[in-house]
Amino acid sequence: MKITSKGRYAVLAMVDIAKFGENTPCNLSHVSVRQNISLSYLEQIFNDLKKAKLVKSQKGPGGGYRLNKESSEIRILDIFNAIDEQIKTTGCGNNPKSSCSGTGQKCLTHNFWENLEGVIGNYLNSVYLSDLTAGYSISDERRVISE
Q1: Using CA atoms, how far apart are residues 28 and 26, in angstroms rounded to an integer?
Q2: CATH number at residue 53
Q3: Which domain holds residue 78?
Q4: Residue 139's pLDDT band (boundaries 50, 70, 90)?
Q5: What is the 3-state secondary structure (H, E, C) of 21-41?
Q6: With bands split at pLDDT 50, 70 and 90, how would you rate the model's confidence at 99?
Q7: 118-133 pLDDT, tens digit each
Q8: Could you tell me if residue 11 is inside a domain?
């Protein structure tokens, strides 16, 4: 199983918005610099997050993105779902070309991997954005841009 850079960056950027955009919209160019993420990649990610109504945008001077809900209401799984990040631990399937054995049958360890997938999904569903922002301090290894 691998979490893509899109998944990691989406969570990281949402934590950034939760911390730095509490009272004012966050400009994605600032998030880009603070978190060392390509601005164009962030724009793609935030289009998906906006469609899922996890963030809202404000246009014009002083505009940017802010959370559409309280950080205590946004689960990490919500973020993954918004960007279509798949939590897949099995290579098995009904298509013979995509199954582990190449026969279309489940491999011997399929149930183990499927159970692990469920545990990971449950964990991501139990962690809120606010959990990741708790304990944050300016001394953390983040660059802060004076706005």
Answers
A1: 6
A2: 1.10.10.10
A3: 5-133
A4: very low
A5: CCCCCECHHHHHHHHCCCHHH
A6: low
A7: 999 999 999 999 999 9
A8: yes
Tell me which of 27-36, 64-73, 109-118 is least confident.
109-118
As a whole number of angstroms, the distance between CA 58 and CA 82 comes to: 20
* Residue linked to tokens 């969570």: 11
Do residues 57 and 63 make contact, with C-beta atoms less than 8 angstroms apart? Answer: yes
Predicted pLDDT at 137:
46
Residues linked to residue 55 through DSSP beta bridges, in sequence order: 67
Q: Which two tokens stand for residue 81?
A: 């779902």
Distant-in-sequence contacts of 113-122, Cβ < 8 A, 24+ apart = 113/89, 114/89, 114/90, 116/1, 116/89, 117/1, 117/87, 117/88, 117/89, 117/90, 120/1, 120/87, 120/89, 121/77, 121/87
Burial 32-69 (b: 16+ CB within 10 A, else e): bebeebeeeebeebbebbeeeebbeeeeeeeebbbbee
Give the total number of structural domains in the chain: 1
Tokens of 139: 């001394």
